[in-house]
User: Which sequence fits this backbone?
């Protein structure tokens, strides 16, 4: 039996790499052309995989499920088009469409647009729970429409998500008033980080359950939802963020919902410390996997 | 339109550098001769300016005010006298006296004494809200009276502040009993970090408002008030500190008070990680600017 | 009078190095052969000593006790047997047995087994409060029985502790169900990190007092009980951990209990940032010392 | 007189920011969309400016020229088109064409193509000395033609440089044979890093002088020409690189040549240590400035 | 075509993972129980694999061989016995014996003993070129005979190597005179780092060729042979070390020798910077692979 | 027998701490008020002591002398006057005068002035070999006469050194022409870093021997003489520096000279990497100790 540090370099050391027949597929998307501040999320998937070794030995106390024992495949990294945002999004969409239930490791938040487009082909519009410091509904990113501040602006306009079944948690960045007001006007529920701190994760989890209901839903987790003290390895940090205990407490309370896909994005390892940001990302994937088993 | 990383290297990328006619003036004070433990706060102003780029695009959700649109000037860094504490304090006082409403970026906490002296020339004694892990009312710093453990001992004795309109928040360091007792005996209100954690930022903000009242007041923020996990880049860290969400929640609830100046001190970038300490300092300045606009 | 950075390189700069006649003895145990993930705790004692300088000047506000003024000796580091776990444990036990009230700085958690064996010679079975992210009652560590996941499995089986006077606080790692169930079946009280967050440190401190009672007790503090954002310098971090303010709040509320020894383990400085993990460890030792004086 | 750490945040603390009338203009180009391995050179200009403070006080011993006393302006950073390589290159070319003698701080090496295009408008084809670990004459970068491995492939094909007046120094990366052979077939002189180590900087400087002759020439310095031990802060490091003493020795021996522009590219501060890579870049700019004065 | 950062997480992104039928097999040995100073080489194999991506695209200019195109397999990591040196060495020997031509990534230098034992089963005694700051012929390591200071003491005594066909390059550490004298008395050639600096890599390469001759030989490369400025990520650094350009120059000049196996050991990533130590290790493996093809 | 990491926290783990009767005394001087750029050398002595553990086991191959076996005492750190340069210099001089043959660990270079004053009381003027990137004969440091750019200006003017028996090695910083010319006019020999690289350490060592002769001499080693790639942990780095192999080669060739004291200054650990700067400093002290024994 090998110690954690000798595991294969896949997510949780998963030996199974063939995505066909797997009930869940983990894949990396090393794309960071859409970042507007610090770059480097292209190195995210490798770092999350390495950090995940710390979770590879033992069951999740919630339900005593060992996610490493599931029918999960690590399909490696997606191809991208170097230096070309539209071509990369097309490539990502095409590759995502080839998998069933996908758990994606970013990469910057732009990739979620491509993932939602792929999902829409099969599922139609989905509900969305979105953890983030930022609304990500900017119509523009310093002149660029397809970048990491805009995935949900496009997703709403393209009908990929149902705005009234969409909730954003951890919001706290500077933002133009018109971006905020447009988002709210679509029916999106916005929960600030301060609200999470003041009302607690149990109340917020209940609110997420209420917004999503039992329809097909998607989880998009921007690691900058978490406080920079616990997740420094990201490009657009904002103080006052969520704590990982709150995040895990909320995720545990989302079991039983009908998720059809998820992503964790914006891990930039060059700014990380002792792998703590990558470990937070890996833990979110791991808890999602546990929830999926619980649902079976 | 330039992305954040291409902004001019001023606070928030402010183009306006002429302090005359500005309603608020930001300036750096790269002085660290008064540090008693780890040094390096001379590099603080440059780091805070660089980190502030992340806040340069968009309004503060509180009141939808964009601080970058205000009449604010970044006046650059103060001159100091290399290796000479008394001469530096005199220089700092003189330069500060030449500006109107000053927002200073330290530098170590010794500089606050010079800033309060300059303020006293115009305003007389002021109220004071002081965030810190330490009381900073030591009469002595290992034999040195003018150093970063003593600014408020001198300020009280020189009549620069009204001790009964003075409140210290986040206190938790080891301290000689006589230093604590002298401070309390002056009428200063002392709120430990544990009290903030147990009673919450709303209650503490109310207490600050009650102590300061509507008289002219000053805000002095030692970055070590914040927990070392969120603000490692400082010289005298103490565990158990405030969280940035609490700090921002308190500051937002101080709008409407009559502040006439402020400083953020003790950022030591050589010990920082991924700019998170500098970002916390920049965010405090940014929230203070928002509050000042709200007051208009 | 010397500033903190010029102190002797002992714990709190203690000049007194002769353990005979001291009421408390601090010692380092630079052993890390039992680590199963990231290594490097052999460098822990040196880092904790260096970080402790920040606490060397002033009294603990709790009771205005200055731990540096006590009858405490820093006895230096224990000898270990390079590359040999059983021989090292025997050496550690022998050395520990030669001291009175020992405060040990690890080293990995394996050393606690040797320390409890030494304590048992004099005190018989003790109560135990154990802060950790992990139960550390695994019967096996990837094929190795004597390693850092097993000290309390062995301690319970060898009768070194009274399981019904044993409480574990901060638990949150993946774990096989049978390990958890065996532990609970022995009568051990298990308090998850989420419980601490939801119920608060005052309630948990009361629970610890109730489990330990007034019998002789031991404190074992694995630094990974603390959140990776505040204690990155460790080998098996887990997200969602305790905050240092909670830890200090609980420790302060344990004064008056009958402790006969303690350790702080698993500090791995190569993964630390700005000494914050080492400072957390030093602060725990410092609070324990204060409690011991209070008891006198 | 201000210490270095209180200088204005421009290159060498230059107060003069108006490029009109300056004999040399320094500008940053925070573009990194063309990187094929680690990213982050968008942060390069800010880091080089900050590091340059260490060179701001005193003359260059070569000729006792103080570059800070020259007629030099720091024009700030160029605008770029976020996420769009062709649009960014067009923007960069346009801005560069508006200046006279430009010293550019990258950004990744793709920008040199735009700079050479701008230069060509005025100067026609130029000679080129190119320090690099890589030939940068790849026709393709993982499917992308406009990226940091290709600027000189395009420059040669577009007639922006005279290949027989082109010399590459420090070459040592893996490379397809056909890329190497195409480059050599154009008449480019290729000097490997090993040759520099074995024959010494004086001989190589003589060779550069011989290749460039007295025609108008350009200097393009990819910081990865320097060894990773002295310049870790870059995206595609290769072992066995040049030493900074060799680089400075060669540059000093290039005085009197007819340079009409230069750039230093590929500084990625997130991977730097103690600013040493940024300082190397600043020192290269500083020596080039000295050479230009010497030429006057 | 994927950029380097999207490669599979194997050495050079090798897709071929089945060692049977491969002419060369790369494998990791995450063992670090034999370290006597800083630990952490268990993380070495993962770091070397990650760093090797930078070498994955293009041929080695020496002979225009692309090592990634060879018949090479990355067999993953060896199993080890946690916390048990003798059992680990037995396991390593057994696994190594199952492969043909092995290129091992340590792990600490103790593993070389096990690898030489495995090699001896098939090849009998071999010649040895050993790059290191240390002789590694200590009979004892602070009381432990099987540790990273002793592999060649044991190898000589067990007849695994021919001492007169053994040469050590880069030697410079403090050492007891009797250890040095014993080594020299066996007939081993010792070349200090200063000799390499003063006489140059070409002369030393000739000397290595002369000592090894055409018999079967082994290459053992302790990364601390390289200077700490270029290879900080190791446990027992010594100043004055070899430069990577010298190392690569020597290795290139060893082509045609009859190597039957090799290892690169002592990479400790927690002390590395920007992956430069790991890249040096990867480059050594890559050059060795090139040499092996050249030999075909 | 303890491994290196369990040694007492003194230089080389020396048990002997009583300076009386020791033939050599090591002491730290944690003073950094004279730094003009990056600060933090107050932490230098602790870092050098910690790094020296790597040299504690074994003899120096030069003459097979084990410096740890000598009659050497580590006297701990000097007292300084916090925030007061003149008072600190007086204190340092007084303490230094109380010891015999002192080996001092800085601290910034200002301290050398105090040390030379103390030495002058007993020895009269001495010869001086001074390794540095800077001349340190500035009459002024941004308005401050007593700071780290001026010790040798004062020393020459006070008659503490014999300028014609003074040689400076490694010089390469920007400097006003008048500072350089004044120094040369005193008769000081100036050897640039480039000269060391071009002529080699053997030639330079011969030149040092020739300048110093057999009179009493002092060695002052500013760590920034070494290249930033090998010694990043310092405040005023300059590219193109000496390599540690050259430094050690020169020091070894200075045996037999009549040294009466030495210092190593300007180690700033907050900017160090993996202890390599501190190790370089420790190695210089260790070689000096060896030379002193050789002299006996």
Assistant:
């Amino acid at each position: 039996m090998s110690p954690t540090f000798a595991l294969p370099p896949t997510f949780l050391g998963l030996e199974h790499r063939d995505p066909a027949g797997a009930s869940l597929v983990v894949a990396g998307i090393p794309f960071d052309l859409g970042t507007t501040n610090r770059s480097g999320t292209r190195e995210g998937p490798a770092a999350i995989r390495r950090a995940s070794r710390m979770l590879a030995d033992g069951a999740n106390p919630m339900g005593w499920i060992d996610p490493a024992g599931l029918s999960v495949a690590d399909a490696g990294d997606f191809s991208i088009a170097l230096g070309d945002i539209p071509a990369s999004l097309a490539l990502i969409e095409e590759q995502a469409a080839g998998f069933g239930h996908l758990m994606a490791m970013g990469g910057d938040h732009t990739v979620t647009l491509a993932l939602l487009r792929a999902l829409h082909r099969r599922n139609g519009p989905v509900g969305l729970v979105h953890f983030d410091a930022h609304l990500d509904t900017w119509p523009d990113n310093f002149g660029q429409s397809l970048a990491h501040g805009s995935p949900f602006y496009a997703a709403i306009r393209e009908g990929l998500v149902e705005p009234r079944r969409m909730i954003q948690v951890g919001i706290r960045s500077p933002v133009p008033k018109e971006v905020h007001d447009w988002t709210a006007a679509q029916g999106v529920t916005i929960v600030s980080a301060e609200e999470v701190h003041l009302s607690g994760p149990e109340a917020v989890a209940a609110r997420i359950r209420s917004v999503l209901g039992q329809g097909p839903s998607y989880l998009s987790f921007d690691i900058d939802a978490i406080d920079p003290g616990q997740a420094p390895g990201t490009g657009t940090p904002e103080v006052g963020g969520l704590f990982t205990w709150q995040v895990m407490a909320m995720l545990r309370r989302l079991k039983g919902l009908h998720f059809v896909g998820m992503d964790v994005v914006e891990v930039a390892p060059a700014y990380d410390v002792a792998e703590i940001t990558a470990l937070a990302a890996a833990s979110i994937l791991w808890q999602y996997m546990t929830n999926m088993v619980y649902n079976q």
The CA atoms of residues 126 and 183 of chain B lie 17 Å apart. The mean pLDDT of chain B is 95.
